[in-house]
Amino acid sequence: xxxxxxxxxxxxxxxxxxxxxxxxxxxxxxxxxxxxxxxxxxxxxxxxxxxxxxxxxxxxxxxxxxxxxxxxxxxxxxxxxxxxxxxxxxxxxxxxxxxxxxxxxxxxxxxxxxxxxxxxxxxxxxxxxxxxxxxxxxxxxxxxxxxxxxxxxxxxxxxxxxxxxxxxxxxxxxxxxxxxxxxxxxxxxxxxxxxxxxxxxxxxxxxxxxxxxxxxxxxxxxxxxxxxxxxxxxxxxxxxxxxxxxxxxxxxxxxxxxxxxxxxxxxxxxxxxxxxxxxxxxxxxxxxxxxxxxxxxxxxxxxxxxxxxxxxxxxxxxxxxxxxxxxxxxxxxxxxxxxxxxxxxxxxxxxxxxxxxxxxxxxxxxxxxxxxxxxxxxxxxxxxxxxxxxxxxxxxxxxxxxxxxxxxxxxxxxxxxxxxxxxxxxxxxxxxxxxxxxxxxxxxxxxxxxxxxxxxxxxxxxxxxxx
Length: 467
What we know:
By secondary structure, the protein is α/β, with parallel strands linked by helices. 32% of the residues lie in helices and 26% in strands. It is built from 14 helices and 25 strands. α3 (49-66) runs parallel beside α7. The radius of gyration is 24 Å and the shape is globular.
């Protein structure tokens, strides 16, 4: 009989935790999942992917309706019922949450509703007053909204991304602090529901981890749509101003003060690990982020981690992969698997959407990885002209010797869908020469990839790049 209550205890029942539990239970391990959140489902279902993308799709619909005359369609006085927009979002979240609850309570493993903290490397104390032991642990506790950089922001009052999802009506004006995916997605959502939006970003461009050409294209579209986008700023102060809220910041060598009805703090999330007492389990963390190796193993050999609490990429399908790999490596120590981020993809669900996979030019230059690149605009592409979706471009990066595709970027209509063609191509290590001769139906959005592929195939011949 085992000296432990369970073979494996998983702390956190979100996407990474559930994937780990499913994998562990199917391998025959006695498994328990401990979930201490007020709601069951994890960030993606409750406050991330599902609710935000439901809102963004509604924003796309109202935008198309208001521009229906482009296609000869009369749709006058297009309005909206914001409460109904939010109610549909809530219904979708409830459906997904109900499914996750059913999965967690299916009986394949034990499910406990409680918070947990380590008291020693093999024991956790639960908020119910009980304790339990396990031979192995997987920590998948996700993330929380980061603390604001200025105490005065707290005094002024602000919305978080969680708060924004609970609004019953859109603010008349909104200052958004931040330029990452969360910030830009909320910016366009509110702008399309008649909020006057000002986006304030510290770095030279929004989406600072993306290539400049992609970020600059989205900035151009935002400004054309009436949004104010201010980059290269430094936040100084915040406070109340009448019935509204204001921020002060440096921009172009001068101090600027702007006021709005609300401020949305969208400067990221932080690992949710401080309540765990990781030091009692001898688990190393850096700035609350759990340190793991490629096998998702922490500094304590019997404890693994997955998802936003460890990173390095806060993306739900990555959390799922990490959870599965952690559980596999516990169940099959003689057949270890590593995480591989070669096919790392990102999608920003704005209009135009941005999808990337593999290397960006910025990353290739930073790592001194040789590459050649070619791009092609949607403004000269048949299907996008039909759709009047002329903003953006596609871009391919390739190995200059072999032509193997190293990365792709799509800024344009359905960019999050179109990038999967390059994910599939890179999974099979295809070259631009092979992609260029792959049949594509006309007129489709997807055939646009053949144009940069053809250009690069023509330039990369016999291990020699021609200009």
